Amino acid sequence: MSKIKVFIPCDDANHVCDKTQYKEATLWEKIKLNIHLIYCRACREYTKNNTKLTKAIKKSEVECLDKKCKETMKLDFEKALKEHSN
Ligand SMILES: [Zn+2]
User: Fold this and answer.
1) Are 27 and 43 a contacting pair, CB within 8 Å?
2) What pLDDT shows up at residue 1?
3) Distance between CA atoms of 66 and 44, rounded to whole angstroms?
């Protein structure tokens, strides 16, 4: 039986996390991410922040759909990301 990669590096976990936000991750990828999150605190934090930002964006999209508003939102998102990486 071929080796199944269950333990993935943090980079992969973060990538799957990003894909999950856009509903592009497969079930198996999500399982691997969840296994990773059990033992990796750093990625748990990353996922938590990522989910929070996505929720904030979704909420804003419902509230304002015009283009200018979306631009502002994008800037806010980038600012939040910068603050998070500091
Ligand atoms: Zn990790």
Assistant:
1) no
2) 47
3) 33
Structure token pair of residue 18: 């990003």
| Residue appearing with tokens 């750093």 | 42
Considering Cα of 40, then 15, then 59, then 74, what sign does the dihedral take? positive
- If you measure from the C-alpha of residue 47 to the centroid of ligand 1, how many angstroms do you get, rounded to a whole number? 10
Mean pLDDT of 30-43: 94
Question: What pLDDT is stored for residue 6 in this prediction?
Answer: 80
Residue 5 Cα to ligand 1 midpoint, Å, equals: 15
Q: Is 80 exceeded by the pLDDT of residue 79?
A: yes
Query: Taking CA 44 as the corner, what is the angle to CA 43 and CA 50, rounded to the nearest 5 degrees?
Result: 85
Q: Write the single-letter amino acid at 67.
A: K
Distance 40 CA to ligand 1 centre (A): 5
